[in-house]
User: What shape does this take?
Amino acid sequence: KNEVEQSPQNLTAQEGEFITINCSYSVGISALHWLQQHPGGGIVSLFMLSSGKKKHGRLIATINIQEKHSSLHITASHPRDSAVYICAVSTGAGSYQLTFGKGTKLSVIP
Amino acid sequence: NAGVTQTPKFQVLKTGQSMTLQCAQDMNHEYMSWYRQDPGMGLRLIHYSVGAGITDQGEVPNGYNVSRSTTEDFPLRLLSAAPSQTSVYFCASSLTAPYNEQFFGPGTRLTVL
Assistant: This one.
C-alpha cells in the first residue's frame, strides 16, 4: 500500500507570500493529483501529473519521480486561497485505487 | 452538464437503520468511487466501479454495499447504520481510472445516532 505524507499539516501565511506544500509517497505511481477543498465545500481537482511541471494561473505543481516527491506552489497568495490542499496518488497499472494524504490546511491572512 | 451529483446533502439516522446515498454523473465516465472523510484522516476508499456491472471493494468496505446497473448511477447502501459510520461521504468519477482527472460530488454529511 502506498503511504502518502503531506507537509506541513497547517500553514498560515500573509497575503502575497509564496507558499509551498509538499507531498511524498512510498511506492512508484502512475499519476499524482493535487486537490483543493474549501471549508464546508466540495473537492476540486487542481492538477494531475505524472512527470515534470504544470502551471495554472498562480499555482504550480512539480513532481520528481526518482525522489517520490511532489510540491504545490502558490505565488502571490490571496485570502481566497485559504483551503485544505490534498495530495492523492494512483499506484500504477492494474491498481484502481487512489491513496490520499491527510491534507494541508492553508490560511492566508490579509 | 451537471457533473457529479449526490443526494441527500445531509442525513441523520438512528443506529440500525438502512439508507442509500445516491450518486450520478452525466459525463459518461466509466470509473466511479465512494470515499469517506473523517477528521484527521485522509479520504478513504469504500467501493469503486470500473464500469456498469463491475464493482470492487476499497480500503473500508465493511457495512456498505454498492451496485452499478448503469454507467450514470452508483448508489452506496448502508445496511445497518452504526455510529462509526458518521462521516462525510464523497462520490467521484473519472473517465476510465484513478489516473484520470477526478470529479467529485458535493458530499453527503451523515450522522448516525
